[in-house]
Design a protein that fits this description.
Strand order of the largest sheet: 3-2-1-4-5-6-10
Strand content: 15-25%
CATH class of one domain: Alpha Beta
Shape: globular
Family: Belongs to the NAD(P)-dependent epimerase/dehydratase family. dTDP-glucose dehydratase subfamily.
Bound molecules: nicotinamide-adenine-dinucleotide
Number of helices: 12
Low-confidence stretches: none
CATH architecture of one domain: 3-Layer(aba) Sandwich
Helix content: 40-55%
Distance between the termini: 31 Å
Cofactor: NAD(+)
CATH superfamily of one domain: NAD(P)-binding Rossmann-like Domain
GO molecular function, one term: dTDP-glucose 4,6-dehydratase activity
Order of helices and strands: EHEEHEHHHEHEEHEEHEEHEHHH
Largest sheet: 7 strands, parallel
Structural class: alpha/beta
Pfam family, one: GDP_Man_Dehyd
EC number: 4.2.1.46
C-alpha cells in the first residue's frame, strides 16, 4: 500500500511512520506543515528509506493537497495532522478551529474528489482513516463507566470540541458521499519523542532541571494511558483490517490519577538518575507543587477497547509500569533530541541546516 499520513512529523504520526517503515512493506508519504509540534528529527531513523517521502504542506491548502494526491496516488489516507494541546486551545482556540475543522474538511473534500476519480478496483480498497481522541466523549461520572464507540459526544475543551467536529465531518462524508472511512478514538498517549509541553515529558525534564512539578488541582483527574507504539500498531491494524464506516476505541487499560503519574516519574528518576537530583532533595517527589486547576478540566476518561480486541485481535503490549520506565529511560538516553527542542534548533532540520 501507498499510505499518505498527515501530521507525520508529530508525536504519534512519527511513531506510526517508524512502525510502518520498519514492520511492513508499505510506502509512506508524510504530509506535514511543520508547526512548532512537527519535528523531522523524530524520523531520522527512517528518513533515508526509499519507501518514505516527505511533503511540507498545510492541510488547509486545497491546491497543495490536490497536487500531492495527484502526484503520489496513495491507496489510503491516515489523518493525524491537528493542533493537539488542550492548554493552547484554551488560550488561543482559533488555530484549533482552522486546522482541526477547516483542515479536516479541506482534506475530506480533496480525498472525495480523488477517490471518485479512481478506477473501480482502486476505489474499493481506498480508505480515509481519521485519528481522533477519547476526549470527544467528555468525562465519566461513575467509576464503573467506560467510553464505548456509541457513547454520546460531549466535548469540554476547544480542542476536544474541534476534534468532535472533525469526527462528525468524517462520518458525514461516509453517509452522504460513500467515502470509505475509518475512525479511531484513542486515550492519552505517552512514550519517546513526545513534545516537552505534554504532561509526562514536561515532568521528566522539569525534574531533571530541578524545577517545580506543577500538578493541576489536587491531581485526582484520571486518564487512561497508552504507550505510543501500541497505538501505532493499532492504527495500522485498523487501516488494513478494519471495516469501512466503523469506529474503534483504542485504550491501554491503564487508568491512573495525574498525581500517581507524576509520583511514578519521580520514583523512576530517583532510581535511574539519583546523581542529577539536587543535594537539597531526598526525592524528586519534593518538587511536586499543586497549581490552580485547568478551566473545564475533565475528571475521568476511561476506554472500553473491547471492540478492537474482539474484531481485530489487538491489545496493548505495554503496561503503564513497563511503558513509563521505557519512556523515562528514553529521555535519559536521548538528551540531544529534547535539548534541540528546548533550544529551538529542531526547527532548523526542516531547512536542511541541522
Ligand atoms: P502533535 O501535536 O504531536 O503533532 C501534530 C502534527 O500535525 C505536527 O507534526 C504538526 O506539524 C502537524 N500539523 C499541525 N497543523 C497542521 C496543518 N495545518 N497541516 C499539516 N500539518 C499540520 O499531535 P499528536 O499528539 O501526534 O496527535 C496526532 C493526532 O492524534 C491528533 O489528531 C490528535 O488529536 C490525535 N490524538 C492524540 C492523542 C495524544 O495523546 N497525543 C490521543 C488521541 C488522539
Amino acid at each position: 500500500m501507498k499510505i499518505l499520513i498527515t501530521g507525520g512529523a508529530g508525536f504519534i504520526g512519527s511513531a506510526l511512520i517508524r512502525h510502518t517503515i520498519k514492520n511492513s512493506d508499505h510506502q509512506v508519504i508524510n504530509v506535514d506543515s511543520l508547526t512548532y509540534a512537527g519535528n523531522l528529527d523524530s524520523l531520522a531513523s527512517i528518513e533515508a528509506d526509499p519507501r518514505y517521502t516527505f511533503e511540507q504542506a498545510d492541510i488547509c491548502d486545497a491546491e497543495a493537497i490536490k497536487d500531492i494526491l495527484d502526484k503520489h496516488a496513495p491507496s489510503a489516507i491516515m489523518h493525524l495532522a491537528a493542533e493537539s494541546h488542550v492548554d493552547r486551545s484554551i488560550d488561543a482556540p482559533g488555530q484549533f478551529i482552522q486546522t482541526n475543522i477547516v483542515g479536516t474538511y479541506t482534506l475530506l473534500h480533496a480525498a472525495r474528489q480523488y477517490w471518485s476519480a479512481l478506477c473501480p478496483e482502486a476505489r474499493s480498497v481506498f480508505r480515509f482513516h481519521h485519528i481522533s481522541t477519547d476526549e470527544v466523549y467528555g468525562d465519566l461520572e461513575r467509576p464503573e463507566d467506560l467510553f464505548t464507540e456509541t457513547t454520546p459526544y460531549a466535548p469540554s475543551s476547544p480542542y476536544s470540541a474541534s476534534k468532535a467536529s472533525s469526527d462528525h465531518l468524517v462520518r458525514a462524508w461516509s453517509r452522504t458521499y460513500g467515502l470509505p472511512i475509518l475512525i479511531t478514538n484513542c486515550s492519552n498517549n505517552y512514550g519517546p519523542y513526545h513534545f516537552p509541553e505534554k504532561l509526562i515529558p514536561h515532568m521528566i525534564l522539569s525534574a531533571l532541571a530541578g524545577k517545580q512539578l506543577p500538578v493541576y488541582g489536587d491531581g485526582s483527574q484520571v486518564r487512561d494511558w497508552l504507550y505510543v507504539d501500541d497505538h501505532a500498531r493499532a492504527l495500522l491494524e485498523v487501516l488494513t483490517e478494519g471495516k469501512p464506516g466503523e469506529t474503534y476505541n483504542i485504550g491501554g487499560n491503564n487508568e491512573k490519577r495525574n498525581l500517581e503519574v507524576v509520583e511514578t516519574i519521580c520514583d523512576l528518576l530517583d532510581q535511574l538518575a539519583p546523581t542529577e537530583r539536587s543535594p537539597a532533595l531526598t526525592s524528586y517527589r519534593e518538587l511536586i507543587t499543586f497549581v490552580e486547576d485547568r478551566p473545564g478540566h475533565d475528571k475521568r476518561y476511561a476506554i472500553d477497547a473491547g471492540k478492537i480486541h474482539q474484531e481485530l485481535g489487538w491489545e496493548p503490549i505495554e503496561t503503564f509500569e513497563s511503558g513509563i520506565r521505557k519512556t523515562v529511560e528514553w529521555y535519559l538516553e536521548n538528551r540531544s533530541w529534547w535539548q534541540r527542542v528546548i533550544s529551538g534548533d529542531y526547527r532548523l532540520t526542516r531547512l536542511g541546516e541541522s
